[in-house]
Each structure stands twice: as C-alpha cells, then as structure tokens.
Amino acid sequence: MKIKYLLLFGLASIGLQAEAQVLPYKNSQLPIEDRVQDLLGRMTVEEKVGQLSKLLGWEMYEKDGKSVRASKKFKDAVKQQHIGLLWATLRADPWTQKTLDNGLSPKEAARATNALQKFMLDSTRLGIPLILSEEAPHGHMAIGATVFPTAIGQASTWNPALIQQMASTIARETSAVGGKNGYGPVLDLARDPRWSRTEETYGEDPYLIGQMGEAMVSGFQGEKIGGTDNIIATLKHFVAYAVPEGGHNGGSVSVGERALLHYYLPPFEKAVRAGAGSVMTAYNSIDGIPCSSNAWLLNDILRKQWGFSGFVVSDLLSISGLNGGHATAETAVDAAQQSIQAGLDVDLSGSGYNNNLLAAVKKGFVDQQTLDRAVSRVLHMKFSLGLFEQPYVDEKAVEKKVGTAANKDLARQVAREAIVLLKNEKSTLPLSKSLKSIAVIGPNADNIYNQLGDYTAPQPEEKVQTVLEGVRALVSKSTRVDYVKGCAIRDTTAADIDAAVAAATGADVTIVVLGGSSARDFKTSYQATGAANVESGANTVSDMESGEGFDRATLDLLGNQMTLLKRLYATGKPIVLVTIMGRPLNLNWAAEHIPAIVNAWYPGQEGGLAIADVLFGDYNPAGRLPISVAKAVGQLPIHYNHTKPTHHDYVEFDAKPLYAFGYGLSYTQFDYSDLRVELAENADDFACTVRLNVKNVGERDGEEVVQLYVVDQVSSVVTPVKQLKKFIRQPIKKGESQEVSFVLRKDDLKLWGLDRQWKTEKGKFKLLVGPASDDIKLTEDIILSKTYPL
Fold first, then answer.
1. What DSSP letter does each residue of 662-697 carry, written as one string?
2. Alpha-carbon separation of residue 142 from 178, 180, 231 (angstroms)
C-alpha cells in the first residue's frame, strides 16, 4: 500500500512539474500579447518568414478510397518553408482539378484538415497550427456545402439581417470542416459591368455595399473572434479593383483621392470597424502605386485611421506582380521588401516572400522589427481563434452542420428575396398553377452550373434545383410541362430553335430562361491566379461569359439567344423572360416586347424553386437592383450617384438607364404619404429624424424597400447628384399602413473638404424618399445652421 501511495504521489509530482513547465505561449491563461511575444522570441528567422507564407492547399492532402492524409508535398513545404497558412485546401473546381470523385466530402474534409493540423503540432519544433483560409463568398467553395446566391443577388435582397444569417450559416459550414478564415465579403464598387467579376460585388452604391459587408463580417465572426462555429472574414479587394480601364480584370484604374475617400473606401471602413480579421490587397495600382506596396493605404488609412488590427494578405501572386506586370520592383527580393515595408503581412502563393523575404532580411533590406510586426499579426490571430487549444474539428458533427435541410431552406429564402421583378405588363404574373401546358425553354432553364456563379464547387445533379424542376414542382399534376433547350449561351453550332418554337406554339405560356454563365469547365485553361483564359471567337463552346477573367466588350445576350427570344415572341403566345446572369446585360428589346421579365442573377442551388415561387405567386417579389442596367455600353459608367452636373442626353437616346438603381416591382402597390422631418442641432452633432407612412393599397401582402436619398444642394467640393443614405425592407399586409423612420447624423452627410478634413457643411440638403433612385415620392429640405467637423 505504501508503494502504491508513493507511486501515486510521484506521478502527481511529475504532473505538477509538467504543468509548471508549460511554455508561456502554450498557456491559455496568459494575455495573447504575452503569448505572441514569447513565441516570437523562440522562432528563427526562417520560421518567422514561413509564418507569412500561405500556400495553395488542394495538393496538401492525399486521398485513397476513404483514407485521407497529409501529402508529401505538404510535409516538404512545412519542413522547408515552415509555412503558417494554407489557402483553398478544400476547394474543388476545374482549376484545381478536384471533382466529386477525387475531391473531399465534408467528412473527408474534416479528416484532411485534422491530419494537416496534427502534423503541424506533432512534427514541427514549435507546434504552431495552421490558419486554413477558404473561399466563402456565397457558400463554402467545397463539395457538400450549401450554395447561396452570388453577392450581386445578396445585395438585391436589400436585407442585411438576412445576409448576416446567411453568413453565419456559411461560417458554421466552413468551420465544421476546419476552415477558420473565409474569403469574403467582396466590397468592390462595381461601376463597369464589362468587368468579369461584377457578380461578386454588392453593386454600385457605397452605402449599400457597406451595409452588406458589415452584415457578412458580423455573420462570419460572431460577437468575438474565436467563437464556436465562426471564422474570420477577409475583405476584398483593397481597393478600387472593380473599375479597371476598359473593363480589363486586374487592369489600371483612374481614381482620385477624393473619389477613393468618398466612394471606394467607406465600405471597407464599415467592415473594418465591424471587426474584420483580414484584408486582401487588390491587383491594381492607385495613382501609380500598386495596392500591394501602398503604405498610404495599408498603414495610414487601414491601420492608423481605422484602427485595423488584423493581418493583410496579398491577392494570389500580387507581390510577384511588382517585379512582373507593374514593373515597380527590379527583382523579386525588392518586391518582397516593398510589400512588407508597406504593411502587407501574408503572401498568398508562398513564392512572393519565402526565399525573397529571407534574403531581404539577411541582407539588411528589411529589419527585424518589420518582420516581427507582420509575424505577430498572424500569430495574434491564431491565438484569438483558439487554434492552439482547439486545432482539430469534430468529424462526427460535420453532418449536423454542413448541407442541412435548414441551410437549404435558407438558401431558398435568400434566392427568393433576391429576385427582382423588372416588368409585369397587364399582370402577366403570377401564373396560374393549373394551366394546361407550359413550355420551359432556354439555355439556363435546366443547367445546374449556369445558375450557381463563379467560385462554386462541383455539385451532384440532384442537389441543385433548376427552373424546369421548380416549375414542375409547383404546377398541378394535370399541367403538361415541355422543355426544349433551344440554344446555348455562346455556342452557335448546336441550336434547336425550331423545336423550341414548336413547344411554345402548343403551350398556354412560355417561360424562357436566358442570360449568362460563370460555369467553369474542364476544357478551359486557367492562369496561375485562377482567372480563366478567354478564347474569343465564334467557335468556342463554353457557356462561360462571366466570372473571373471573362471581361466583355459588349453587354448583349450572346450566341443565338436573341434569335430564340424573337422567334418565340413571333408565336404570339404569352412569354415570361427569366434572366439568370452575373452582370446586367442588354435587355432593351425584351423590355419593349416581352410582357413579364424576372431577374434572378445567379440564384444558387435552390434558385429554380425560388424562381418558381415568384412565377406562380407563392412569393411576392421585393428585390431591388443594386446596380443600374444600361441601355448600351456607350452609356458606361451609368451609376445613379455620379457627381454633378446632371448628365445630358446622347444623339441616339437619352442618358437614363433602362432600369435604375433601387428599381424593382411587386405584385401589390404601395402609397407614400405624410413625410415629417424634425431637425435637432446641438454643439457636436445633429439628429434629423425622417418619418413617413407607407400603405399597401394592392390585393396582396408584400414588402416595400423604402429608400432615403440626399442631395447636398451647395457644397465646397463636387458631390453626387443624389446619394443613398438609409433604407429598410418593410413587410406590409394588404390594406395596412406602416410608419417608417430614419435618423440622419453628421457622419451621414460628411464630405472631404478643400482643407482635406472630414466635415458636414452647413447649408441646404434635399431629402428624397421613394421605392427607387428614379422614383421619388416625397421630398423635403433641411438647412444646417453650422458646419460639423468629424
């Protein structure tokens, strides 16, 4: 018995000694900053440089049957480069060559990330876990994850609360399989729809983008970084990436300082102040300085003015772009030096820093303090995420979090709220579910990938609900539904328009589904950055005309789509046009001839059901355009909030868009009345309270998106002709009236003055309230008696 007690006492003593010898950076009871400094002090220069390398992750695992393990390439990268992060480890698409067969199911994904983290903890000197970054702008870009509408559709909901809920769901699915950093939201201000990535944006308005961005960050990160089921957000692309000259993706931009401060930077500031953990630099330059080496952007604006405390990551290979396309660095070592000194912390690629940064440090071009500052930002985030305490995920819990029925229902709701009813002449919609026959026609009527958008993983066919399937699901059993594709998006060699016309001739109504596609295929070649190589000409067969790399010279419907639409119109039968697309396309002819037009953007996996819900009246549409629809490319840019003076007309037609920002119809009607404005000024700020009544005077319950715009009547610098300042999506039952109220303060009316200071100037402002930027119902003036500095 004595021996037993001595043995127990000895074991307890060993345990206490071991606990006492826990290294400070592994002690979760210590402040994070203390843990960071302790770990930094133990690291070699090579290990520090390695922590800033984020490699492409999809080659870092091996899969044999159901067995998933760390690959030799991963182990070599860890040993040779001491890497600290991986990107897109779980990504599957034609670029990565990961398919439903050789890619990872959600359970396998969790197994893979656990294997990678285990190697980091067990087989490296300091046991520093990885941050696994994943693409997640409209769902985790991994097999099995829920696919939501792309960002341009999310913005069309004008419902930040719903988007926050969606982002929370994306975070839960991503975190469940090991991802701790989601790429998104994209906060680019889209003012040239020729640009290939318009679908990834929230449109043309900085206020709307800021509201959506804040909602995404809050949904991703929760109340505090490191919470259960949460991930950190990466804001993209910092900054002014979406307005390249000629619409060329990654091309040069021409933006002045005041425009940057007024329009392009505010959405990022909003998201940063919401606590975003990471920011990604853009490929372009600003006034001759590449964003990836721009100290004014990364240090002065982002960190000093906004208080950003996370880490900045390059876009893929953008550090190498300094001594490549931009030609502002003579060598790769010089490029690494320029970037890290400007405040760029993490290299997405693993080739921009690595040996180049190591050489810059050893040669004295980059001092130890600069290196340590970048490394500490990465380590701080790893500690904040709790990766040292919980590096692994629960493989058994994956099925309860990824691709659930509740997540699918949410995807359908987001898609429904995103749908914009553009035209409904003579109440063509909603359709009766008991029609005798319906013809469903068009290249996007029954194509799963054409409705999902770019940055989407491969999907089993049964998972995605197309428009054809949605129609068949909602109509009565006695209704005959005929389907003919008719033509492709771009390919003109395999059209069957005659068969489509025959089907339409024998139907009571035709639903024709046209538009564009961001569907990548395995025939397309890709650049090192992941953007597609475009093969122009009539002999191409890919549907893809949108998505990263697919810039347009026109905005016309491609291929035989217009021929198909005109032939169907000539039958004299009722036609409903549904557009599924990633950018606003030319709809002039359709707007003149087709009685009903519904725009769904890329509506995600449940999009077909959501569209059918609207077509047959199960859901009353209330989506609003977050971007103007031009009549011609020659009108571009045509954003509603252009700076003064007002545009004059062209020789060919007027300067107005076909459909304006904020526009969208409903199956009911609303009246606006009784605008009341109260202005209370004090020494430091003012409160301008705006109240009005909105009444549903139609025959259906519905939702109205009430929008408040402001015009600064006289200002020291040129301001927009009008600017969105507040909005709300308000449900109102038929026959009922709701009071809507907004409050404006000095921050809402500020400008960057002649003295290069933020202020709200005294003087007259016009308030405009209505359901769209070009449909103002009520107006009122206010006069500020003094100037308010900010």
1. T--B-SS-EEEEEEEEEEEE-SS-EEEEEEEEEEE-
2. 12, 14, 15
The C-alpha atoms of residue 721 and residue 690 are separated, in whole angstroms, by 20
pLDDT tens digits for 116-175?
999 999 999 999 999 999 999 999 999 999 999 999 999 999 999 999 999 999 999 999
* Cα gap 348→334, rounded to integer Å: 17
Q: What's the token pair of residue 536?
A: 């122009």
The values of phi and psi at residue 702, to 5°, are -160, -175
Could you give the C-alpha distances from 707 to 226, 595, 690, 722, in angstroms and in order? 36, 27, 11, 12
CA–CA separation, 580 and 599 (whole Å): 6
**What does the alpha-carbon distance between residue 209 and residue 626 come to, in Å, rounded to a whole number?**
9
Q: Where are the alpha helices (DSSP H) in 96-186?
A: 106-123, 151-156, 160-176
pLDDT tens digits for 248-277? 999 889 999 999 999 999 999 999 999 999
Name beta bridge partners: 62. 69
CA angle in degrees (0–180, nearest 5) for 82-384-118: 45
d(CA 395, CA 776) in angstroms, rounded, equals 54
Crossing angle for the helix pair 405-418 and 607-615, nearest 10 degrees? 50
Which SS3 state, helix, strand or coil, does residue 568 take? helix
Mean pLDDT, rounded, for 740-756: 97
| Token pair belonging to 186 | 């994209």
- The sheet with strand 778-784 has its strands ordered as 723-732, 702-712, 763-770, 778-784
- Ordered by where they begin, the domains of the chain are 2-400 (3.20.20.300), 419-626 (3.40.50.1700), 670-789 (2.60.40.10)
- Say which residue the tokens 């119902």 belong to: 777
Q: What is the pLDDT of residues 699-720, one digit of tens each?
A: 999 999 999 999 999 999 999 9
What one-character DSSP code corresponds to residue 646? P
Q: What Å distances lie between residue 27 and 11, 38, 39, 382, CA to CA?
A: 22, 11, 11, 14
Closest CA to 147 of 362, 408, 342: 408
Q: Alpha-carbon distance 154 to 234, whole Å?
A: 18
Would the pTM count as exceeding 0.85?
yes
Determine the Cα–Cα distance for residues 393 and 401; give it in Å rounded to an integer: 12
Q: By the 8 A CB rule, do 300 and 334 touch?
A: no
| Peptide bond connecting 626 to the previous residue in cis, omega within 30 degrees of 0 | no
